[in-house]
Hints:
Layout: H1 8-26, H2 33-51
Amino acid sequence: MFKVNEANWDRIARVVLGIVLLYLGLGGVVAGGMGIVLDIFGAIFLLTGLVGICPLYMPFKFSTKK
Length: 66
């Protein structure tokens, strides 16, 4: 259905960044509204890294995968 448009290095970076952002938001390091924003971005980065598809790349026909 959808073609993977992220290289392995891109996927690893997104998963690591997603975990760090989720830790900061859910771990109570950053509280309040900014903590919620970090949770949302962390979940998005983690999900796109695990799936390998970035929806923002699609309209521009951009891919980090060779």
